[in-house]
Design brief:
Elements: H1 4-21, E1 25-30, E2 35-38, H2 43-67, E3 75-79, E4 83-89, E5 98-104, H3 111-129
Antiparallel strand pairs: 1-2, 1-5, 3-4, 4-5
Helix pairs in contact: 1-3
């Protein structure tokens, strides 16, 4: 997925989902910790979240390999005062794992919005590969 147009489409999609869910931030990142697009436009915050996500790529890989969990759907970190961080792998065929990362308040909801977002992102990436 090269060029800025697909990245702009992803950023617009993230902004809409962030607005719908009242999320603090939502981004798409590679498993290596490189941000692709963010709802906030705050590159430093996105880079920090993406860096944490690189650790989760290893957790997903080990969970699949060592525990036999064939499809890890979500990893969540909760801090009662600071909120929730949800990391979801984007399910599409590629040689590189991508994640949706959502920062939200501790009582916020995310499953419906992130399910749809992952489907939309998978569709966008598959269109870009054609």
């Amino acid at each position: 997925m090269s060029g800025s147009r697909p990245q702009q489409r992803i950023a617009s999609l993230l902004e809409e989902v962030a607005r719908q869910g009242s999320y603090e931030e939502i981004l798409v990142t590679t498993g290596d910790g490189f941000p692709i697009a963010s709802s906030s436009g705050d590159y430093v915050a996105s880079e920090n979240l993406a860096g944490v996500c690189a650790l989760f790529d290893d957790v997903v890989e080990r969970t699949e390999r060592d525990l036999g969990m064939a499809r890890v759907d979500e990893l969540t970190v909760v801090d009662g005062r600071r909120g929730r961080l949800v990391i979801r792998p984007v399910p599409f065929v590629s040689d590189q794992r991508l994640f949706v990362v959502v920062r939200l308040n501790v009582r916020g909801t995310w499953r419906r919005n992130t399910n749809q977002l992952c489907r939309d992102l998978a569709r966008l990436f598959s269109e870009a590969e054609v």
